[in-house]
Amino acid sequence: MERVSKIIANAGYCSRRKAEELIQKGKVTVNGKVIQIGDKANVSDMISVEGNFLNREDKEYVLLYKPRGVVTTTSDDKNRKTVVDLIQTSNRIYPVGRLDYDTTGILILTNDGELANLLMHPKSNVDKLYVVKVKGLVPPVMLKKLCNGVILDGKKTAKAQARAKKYDKKSNTSIIELTIHEGKNHQVKRMFEALGYEVLKLKRETYSFLNLSGLTSGEYRHLTPKEVKKLYNEVLNEKK
Ligand code: URA
After folding, report:
1. Rounded-to-integer distance, Cα 214 and Cα 28, Å
2. Which of 188, 190, 195, 205 most suits a substitution to test ligand 1, by most atoms within 8 Å of the C-beta?
3. What is the CATH number of the domain that holds 142?
């Protein structure tokens, strides 16, 4: 038996707090009966929230090597290919966070609302390593600026790690590795743009301890139970 608010949040319907609000408003029923805050239910119970039956399908965790030219949503009004279209599943999985249309690399998709919320929480400190190709030479003083924080929307970005991997004189382009744990919109591109650099290519190489090894662009695999547990541990330990 589990608290109904937790079951609702785990199903990805809404946050636990919002679920409690809905319970308080009498909008949640278990087997047809309106329930109270703190009430519990089990797997076979039919839970309805605001008149909709809760979908309690099995949890699925996918690690996708996102290719360029695919949108990170579950559906697109312009009919473009979405990351979910690349995965064969009957579950309603959705992406954890966002990679831009032209960004490639590691992306987690799941129907586990609890883990997705924890990973996407602004306080989640999950490290993500990006490989960034930019126009021009990035000298140590600029790397230091990336590390110490760049002002975006009037606020300094959190401490990061930046390393120059390569400079190609002929094309006048640099490859930089940048590790950040925040997830502001277009953060990497905007950090470089704030310093006067145009991002030509962007790839996310790692997400926490996970990487793309064994996958080529467009391929995916399922996370192992051990990896799922480790991800939970990472985000729950950070919250302490
Ligand atoms: N930062 C960006 O600018 N774009 C992405 O897709 C991911 C991080």
Report:
1. 44
2. 188
3. 3.30.70.1560
For the stretch 75-118, pLDDT in tens is: 999 999 999 999 999 888 999 999 999 999 999 999 998 899 99
Return the structure tokens found at 213: 């090894």
Split into its structural domains, the chain has a count of 3
User: 82 pairs with which residues across the strands?
Assistant: 71
CB neighbours (10 Å) of residue 70?
24
Q: Which atom of ligand 1 is nearest to the CA of 72?
A: 6
Same domain, 94 and 72: yes
Report the mean per-residue pLDDT for the chain.
Answer: 94
- Give the three-state DSSP class for 163: strand
Q: How far apart are CA 15 and CA 97, in angstroms?
A: 16
Highest mean pLDDT pick, 46-50, 173-177, 236-240: 173-177
Measure the CA angle with vertex 208, ends 207 and 214; round to 5°: 55
